[in-house]
Specification:
GO molecular function: nucleic acid binding
Structural class: mainly alpha
Shape: elongated
Keywords: Membrane, Transmembrane, Transmembrane helix
Number of domains: 1
Mean pLDDT: 95
Radius of gyration: 15 Å
Pfam family, one: DUF1294
Number of strands: 0
Distance between the termini: 21 Å
Number of helices: 3
Order of helices and strands: HHH
Largest sheet: none
Oligomer: single chain
InterPro entries: Cold_shock_CspA (IPR012156), DUF1294 (IPR010718)
Length: about 90
């Protein structure tokens, strides 16, 4: 149950971070570091990141960010698979 709330929280925070970064970019102000956006994504904000990228049209044209984003998602998938396998082996 706690995991569900953590994922929802990181989803919302990540979505808002993408929106804030887009707003800062338009205003020519200091931006949120890409690494911060990627860490938020990794910590459970993947859905929020995808929504933020689509809704705000942010970071979609930057190939280097998209490749890093895909790597983060791939690492998440591998970790989830390994955790499921480990838990299944324990039972």
């Amino acid at each position: 149950m706690l995991t569900k709330y953590l994922i929802l929280t990181f989803t919302l925070i990540t979505f808002l971070a993408f929106g804030l970064d887009k707003w800062l970019a338009k205003k020519g102000k200091r931006r949120i570091a890409e690494n911060v956006l990627l860490v938020l994504t990794f910590l459970g904000g993947t859905f929020g990141a995808v929504l933020g990228m689509v809704f705000f049209k942010h970071k979609t044209a930057k190939k280097s960010f998209f490749l890093k984003f895909c790597f983060v998602v791939l690492v998440q998938i591998v970790l989830i698979y390994l955790m499921k396998e480990h838990l299944a082996a324990m039972h």
